[in-house]
Amino acid sequence: MPPPKHAMEIFQLLNKSNCRECGEKTCLAFAGAVFQGKRKIAECTKLDRETIERFSGPDDDVNNTFVEGADFLEQLKSEIAAADLAEAASRLGAEFTNGKLTLKVLRKNFSVDADGNLYTQIHINPWVAVPFLIYILAGKGLTVTGNWVSFRELKDGKERYPLFRKRCEEAMKQVADTYTGLFDDLVHIFSARQVEKQFESDISVVLHPLPKVPLMICYWQPEDGLESSLNVFFDETADKNLNADAVFTLGVGLAQMFTKLSLRHGFDEARSIQ
């Protein structure tokens, strides 16, 4: 499909319900943001996949809702080259040796040097690398308070929460519903710790995608006619140690990782019984 000539062409594809699940106030505002390249058509939760794929074209990743792409990652690396890594390490409580700043990402070492080169014990994905660099460049290094809030309570999180709910919390819940035991194993693989008693659920853990940006997952299995539910919480300092976009990326990235791992597990399991 050729690129749209104006925002109204995009608007005509939408259901015009102004549901706000995309994070924009109206469908017309969303259409304008897509036309300007600020949003992706796939972020509309009401469009069918065929329309999304036809509009997006073969080179677009319709599953990628991250605003941070390869170009943005390269931009952040260039900003790292101009930053004082020793100062950043002091501000964040990170290690700085041999010209590299090192901190823990999901409890594994993740480093960057003065040229923006990344070194890590885990696979480098944009959903990890981008928040990692933003954390170094702009994170205030505030000590976590232990006061948990939802994504919508963070600064600039309210309007994006419907999309966060769909792409992070609902995606994780689907994995937990389908592979409950596996989901429990997955969250503990990353050195998750148990939550405080008042937050206990069937599966409830705290992960540390970044040292001062903990993430708490609480999952309740279906019981007595009630549907299952899953909620993700952040420390109230998350929007100061990162920003809403980077927090969004971390949450959705984790959900996508859990989904891929669960699908791989399901395939292996099915193959083993054939």
Describe it for me?
The protein has 274 residues and is an alpha+beta fold. It folds into two domains: 7-56, Orthogonal Bundle (3-methyladenine DNA Glycosylase II, Chain A, domain 3); 75-274, no CATH class. The chain has helices spanning 7-11, 27-35, 49-56, 70-81, 85-92, 126-138, 161-178, 180-189, 238-241, 244-272, and strands at 95-97, 100-105, 108-113, 118-120, 148-150, 193-194, 203-210, 213-220, 229-235. The strands form two sheets. Strands 5-9-8-7-6 form a five-stranded antiparallel beta sheet. The chain has a four-stranded antiparallel beta sheet with strand order 1-2-3-4, with helices on one face. Helix 7 (161-178) crosses helix 8, helix 7 runs parallel beside helix 10 and helix 8 packs across helix 10 (244-272). The longest helix has 29 residues, at 244-272. It starts with 6 loop residues before the first helix and ends with a helix. Mean pLDDT is 84; it is low at 58-68 and 267-274.
